[in-house]
Design a protein that fits this description.
The chain is an alpha/beta fold and 219 residues long. Helices cover 50% and strands 14% of the residues. A six-stranded parallel beta sheet has the order 2-1-3-4-5-6, with helices on both faces. β1, α1 and β2 form a beta-alpha-beta unit. The radius of gyration is 17 Å and the shape is globular. The mean pLDDT is 82.
Length: 219
């Protein structure tokens, strides 16, 4: 059972998401918070697997709460929920270690699938946000300053292939089918790749891959 924490300062929003997730027999909402401070306390107290946080809340907002959850309870996967399109928020959230970023107008099925994917360690980003991020990195003339870029040279050719596919949002199973590898083997490659790059999750690695122009067609 996937144990979920909901944090949003609007009770109606929490009720709507709770109702959606109730239809999934493998997901249980075990705690609800109305602000980031309460979310921090409940995430540890209820042994949460996934925390779904509103990006803007009174006091400690969702972004700061996500950063502190990553520090205090790193086993908790965080999904940010927002109605906003401010991409500065997206980048800060992803680089802080957030595993997913969804718009609140996502469909019920998208919400359920997002919880499942995030719980398994896979990144989830709304298509609109993903497209913007990719376009931003493709169009940027600035040289990225992330020191981790140098570590990509330390990856083996197979690890670089895996990283390129991770950056497209592919799951371990999808990578395995494409590269003709077992899912367990792919998991090992992903783990070693993240360790070498010093990335805490697949989303951070995906951003790094785009910075490094690893995908075919990036210049």
């Amino acid at each position: 059972m996937i144990r979920v924490l909901l944090a949003d300062d609007q009770e109606l929003v929490r009720a709507g998401i709770r109702l959606v997730l109730k239809h999934a027999d493998d997901i249980e909402v075990v705690a609800e918070a109305s602000d980031g401070h309460e979310a921090l306390l409940l995430a540890a107290r209820h042994e949460v697997d996934v925390a779904m946080l509103d990006i803007q809340m009174e006091g400690i907002d969702g972004l700061l709460a996500a950063e502190r959850i990553a520090e205090q309870t790193p086993s908790v996967r965080v999904v940010m929920l927002t109605t906003f399109g401010e991409h500065a928020y997206v980048e800060r959230a992803l680089k802080a270690g957030v595993t997913g970023f969804l718009l609140k107008d996502s469909t019920p099925q998208e919400l359920i699938q997002a919880v499942r994917r995030v719980a398994s360690g896979a990144p989830v980003v709304s298509p609109q946000i993903t497209r913007h991020l990719i376009d931003r990195y493709l169009d940027s003339d600035e040289e990225p300053a992330d020191p981790r870029l140098d570590r990509i040279a330390e990856l083996t050719s197979r690890e670089r292939e895996v990283l390129a596919m991770v950056s497209t949002g592919a799951s371990n199973a999808e990578i395995g089918r494409e590269l003709h590898l077992g899912e367990g083997t792919v998991k090992g490659y992903v783990s070693r790749m993240l360790t070498k790059l010093r990335c805490s999750n697949r989303v951070q690695a995906a951003i790094l891959a785009h910075d490094a122009r690893l995908l075919q067609g990036e210049r």
